[in-house]
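Section 5: illustrative case.
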């Protein structure tokens, strides 16, 4: 999957399946890629950021949950809670409903990328880099 990640991430999402592939590739790269199933950008794991500075990574986790864990499975109360959380994630991304058209899937991808770029910029700004 890691060798496929760059190609997948350059795909413009037009379908649910496209979004799922992009989200999974980014999740594996940014979250699981550090090993131990933990986000290495976080201060408890040696990184420069606090959890509240990694909002787009949490969006990524939530979007991945949609693909790999049926939100309607199990207890109805838990299912409603999962759908509410998914809705909150979409709102945080600047979306007001579940994407259903190629343009909306592409917009979701764009918002996700913009958020992840912001997280990575915060991490970069926090690192003590030598001056040029």
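Designed sequence:
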């Amino acid at each position: 999957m890691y060798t496929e990640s760059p190609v997948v991430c350059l795909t413009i999402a037009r379908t649910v399946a496209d979004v799922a592939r992009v989200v999974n590739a980014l999740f594996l790269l940014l979250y699981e890629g550090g090993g131990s199933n933990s986000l290495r950008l976080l201060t408890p794991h040696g990184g420069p950021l606090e959890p509240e500075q990694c909002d787009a990574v949490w969006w990524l986790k939530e979007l991945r949950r949609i693909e790999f864990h049926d939100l309607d499975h199990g207890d109805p109360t838990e299912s409603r809670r999962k759908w509410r959380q998914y809705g909150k994630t979409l709102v945080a991304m600047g979306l007001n409903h579940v994407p259903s058209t190629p343009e909306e899937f592409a917009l979701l991808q764009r918002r996700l990328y913009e958020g992840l770029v912001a997280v990575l910029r915060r991490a970069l700004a926090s690192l003590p880099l030598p001056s040029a």
